[in-house]
Write a structure and sequence with these properties.
The complex is a heterodimer. Chain A is of the alpha+beta class. Chain A has 2 domains: 227 residues, Rossmann fold; 110 residues, OB fold (Dihydrolipoamide Acetyltransferase, E2P), CATH 2.40.50.140. Helices cover 24% and strands 37% of the residues of chain A. Chain A has 8 helices and 20 strands. In chain A, the strands form 4 sheets. A 6-stranded mixed β-sheet of chain A has the order 6-7-8-3-9-10, with helices on both faces. In chain A, strands 13-12-11-14-20 form a 5-stranded antiparallel β-sheet. Helix content of chain B is 74%, strand content 3%. Chain B has 12 helices and 2 strands; from the N terminus they run αββααααααααααα. In chain B, α7 crosses α9. The radius of gyration of chain B is 23 Å and the shape is globular. Classes of the chains: A alpha+beta, B mainly alpha. At the A-B interface, β6 and α2 of A face α8 and α9 of B.
């Protein structure tokens, strides 16, 4: 584990009657890529704005290299922000936008020129310096916003849904470019997004937020494979979430059947949530699986077929999401098998 | 969408309106300005224009320009901060302050200016107050200062409103971005807010300077005979001296000056923003 650069300690934020952040504890490790992930209104942008200095927390503390920076105005913090809608200065051209921070620091003109050109090269906008910002496309404006922040060599770069306004293809390209830039420059990134795929692709650490609280912090793989609760499981990727009971260690009852699993340490007959990813549901011939159901819909998704399987087992009824590379006929009966290590059992 | 012929038909009323009330009157003024009455007949002559460039009249024009310029500058100096404060996010009494600045505009212009008479007169409210607390009376009325005061008072809202509109529309994230990049409040203002508000400033200057340079009521009521402005001069030619020809020539010159200034201003305000009322 690297050095802690920023610490949020018990941060709360209340706007009027609404609690936007509820006791947020979070540390940001130097030179790592941290993503705050969550649905809109979960408080991720507010968290970023507190770090940037644009909001003051109602309670709690914010440390930078161990010292509180709550009383430091935004222009004195060693962080730079890439804003959601870029916020490029419309009265300046591309080069002047990028040079803004350096001019304020009264850097010499020839040094500024050199750095601006270097930045334009880094974000693939060589020769665009004299263009007015309004003439650029969304993707290009995005790059200018990143260059304008990076040219100041910040310790931390805060990015507030920077790819939100771009189309899918461009977004994917920029994801890879941003990740490369972060690794090449060795800058700490704090990235805000509601796009779980983006978070999993780019981050070293993901903090999943909901309703002003952090639900889970961890590496992307851990978040995906071992979601801590039903919210995380549901938000990160698609899931089948069922209520179940643990009669004993390594054994879980759900959907009217008893399954082997790899979880233990629950109380006897404790009620749990069971999460199974659609790609972990293996489709077999009818009668040969642990569960049986009727295929209701089949949608071709390129690499796989996405199916909804209607299962009835006694009183229990559930619509399963399953992914399979083999197509099953709509209306046909199929069997389903779930391997013990692919069953995730979570406390309610 | 309307078809070509329908569009032309829809335009017709405006064409007729402009012809009747704009173009024909201007042509008449031009006609009068280029003629002289000799032996009861009107004959072509440049004499009216030549006369307008005599030193006495040049003086009047320069004085008009100077007072209008001073008034505009004063309006800008007072109006910009007011607009800035009203547009700032922290300011909560925005609508009330806006209301305060607009209420006088609902009152008749003449009436408002007359009220200044009552305030500034030798035995007016201000002087009564001064002598009441044992200070000497001041000769306030019938000076250039009184004229400037009247202009600033009457035209200040025209400076505040366009600047306020531009500042209010400004994207707050731009200011945050500037702060984020290290700009303190001084830098934010001079590098970002001021340049971005120039369209409003230009509109404001235009909308104050134009009426200020042509006014005759304010100078008539508050300025007395000493500070005759070009507006008064023109008014006199028509109402008192009955020299319509010379009055027309002066009008044309004033119109020319205003037109040139207006063109220059619009060229600077190339974005066409600023919510100009003209």
């Amino acid at each position: 584990m690297g050095e802690r650069l920023i610490d949020l300690i018990d941060v709360c934020k209340v706007f009027g009657q609404t609690t936007v952040l509820n006791h947020i504890n979070l540390f940001i490790v130097k030179n790592k890529f941290l993503t705050l992930l969550g649905p809109s209104g979960c408080g991720k942008t507010t968290t970023l704005r507190i770090i940037g200095g644009f909001e003051t927390p109602t309670a709690g503390d914010l440390l930078f290299e161990g010292k509180s920076i709550l009383n430091l105005p935004p222009h004195k913090r060693k962080v730079n922000t890439v804003f959601q809608r870029y916020a490029l200065f419309p009265n300046m051209n591309v080069a002047d936008n990028i040079a803004f921070g350096l001019r304020i620091k009264k850097v010499k003109a020839d040094v500024i020129n050199g750095k601006v050109n270097e930045m334009l090269r880094l974000v693939n906008l060589r020769g665009f310096g004299k263009r007015p910002v309004a003439s650029l496309s969304g993707g290009q404006q995005q790059r200018v916003a990143i260059a304008r922040a990076l040219v100041n060599e910040p310790e931390v770069l805060l990015l507030d849904e920077p790819l939100g306004a771009l189309d899918l293809k461009l977004r994917k390209e920029m994801q890879i470019e941003l990740k490369n830039m972060q690794q090449k420059l060795g800058i700490t990134f704090v990235y805000v997004t509601h796009d779980q795929e983006e978070a999993l692709t780019m981050s070293d650490t993901v903090a999943v937020m909901n309703a002003g609280e952090i639900q889970q912090i961890g590496a992307p793989e851990d978040i995906y494979n071992e979601p801590k609760n039903a919210f995380v499981a549901n938000f990160i990727g698609e899931s089948n979430i069922l209520g179940g009971v643990m009669p004993e260690d390594y054994r879980v009852v759900f959907a009217g059947n008893t399954f082997e699993c790899v979880d233990r340490g629950f109380e006897k007959d404790e009620e749990v949530d069971v999460v199974i990813r659609p790609e972990d549901v293996r489709i077999v011939e009818s009668g040969k699986g642990q569960l049986t159901g009727i295929v209701r819909t089949v949608i071709f998704k390129g690499v796989h077929y996405e199916m909804l399987i209607d299962m009835k087992n006694g009183d229990f009824e559930f619509l399963w999401k399953a992914h399979s590379t083999v197509m099953s006929e709509k209306g046909s009966a199929v069997g389903m098998v779930i391997a013990p290590d692919l069953i995730h059992v979570m406390r309610k | 969408m309307l078809k070509g012929s329908a569009k032309r038909a829809a335009v017709a009323p405006y064409v007729i309106w402009s012809a009747l009330f704009v173009i024909i009157p201007i042509l008449l003024v031009i006609y009068y300005s280029l003629t002289m009455e000799t032996d009861g007949k009107l004959v072509f002559s440049w004499a009216n224009y030549a006369r307008a460039f005599q030193p006495t009249y040049i003086d009047v024009m320069l004085r008009s320009g100077r007072l209008a310029l001073i008034s505009t500058a004063a309006c800008l100096l007072i109006g910009y901060p007011v607009a800035y404060i009203m547009a700032s996010r922290e300011f909560e009494n925005r609508s009330f302050l806006l209301f305060l600045f607009l209420v006088p505009m609902w009152m008749n212009f003449l009436l408002r200016t007359y009220s200044w008479l009552a305030l500034l007169e030798n035995n007016g409210i201000l002087n009564t107050f001064l002598s009441g607390i044992g200070l000497p009376k001041l000769a306030l009325l019938y000076t250039n200062k009184a004229v400037v005061l009247g202009m600033v008072y009457n035209f200040l809202p025209f400076m505040i409103l366009p600047i306020y509109t531009v500042l209010k529309k400004m994207d707050h994230s731009l200011i945050e971005a500037a702060q984020d990049l290290g700009a303190d409040s001084r830098n934010v203002f001079f590098r970002l807010v001021l340049p971005l508000s120039t369209p409003g400033v230009i509109s404001g200057i235009t909308m104050v300077f134009m009426p200020a340079v042509t006014t005759f009521i304010i100078s008539d009521l508050l300025g007395g005979s000493k500070s005759m402005l070009i507006g008064n001069l023109i008014e006199q030619q028509f109402m008192k001296v009955s020299d319509w020809n010379f009055g027309s020539a002066m009008s044309m010159i004033l119109m020319g000056v205003v037109l040139v200034l207006f063109t220059v201003f619009t060229m600077v305000d190339k974005d066409g923003e600023g919510g100009a009322l003209y």
